[in-house]
Amino acid sequence: MNPAFHWNVKQLFVFVVATYATPTNPKNQIVLWDRIIENTDPSKVIREENVFVKYGLVDQGAELRGRDVELSLVWDHMPLTGNLHMGEQGKDGRGSFVLPSEYQ
């Protein structure tokens, strides 16, 4: 995340978004995890292993079953002064998976 910082960035609000489509709702986005990285943090690097989601991946009814889910890393630049703007990981760096069609 170090390249995202410059003189006018106080902190970054970083979050992972799951995006999927269902018959009822053609586009769904859910934040699964988030973190704030301060400009004073010397490494400005995110290293996470075996992380549990902070916010559940839930949908109405059973519409998540068997769905393709795409994960993306997004961040908000929180400036010292001026406008707030967002950044996002490139399309080639995103992950995806398919949810099981049956749950026990």
Architecture overview:
This protein has 104 residues and is mostly beta strands. Helices cover 0% and strands 41% of the residues. The chain is built from no helices and five strands. It has strands spanning 9-20, 28-38, 68-79, 85-88, 95-98. Strands 1, 2, 3, 4 and 5 form a five-stranded antiparallel sheet that branches. The model has no long low-confidence stretch (mean pLDDT 86).
Question: Outline of this structure?
Answer:
The protein has 104 residues and is mostly beta strands.
> What's the total helix number?
0
Helix/strand class: mainly beta
N-to-C series of helices and strands: EEEEE
- General form: elongated
Q: What is the share of helical residues?
A: under 10%
Beta-strand share of residues: 35-45%
Indicate the low-confidence ranges by residue numbers.
Answer: none
Ends apart, CA distance between termini: 39 Å
Number of domains: 1
Q: Quick one: biggest sheet?
A: 5 strands, antiparallel
Calculate Rg over CA atoms. Answer: 16 Å
Mean pLDDT comes to 86
The tally of strands reads 5
List the helices and strands and how they pair.
Elements: E1 9-20, E2 28-38, E3 68-79, E4 85-88, E5 95-98
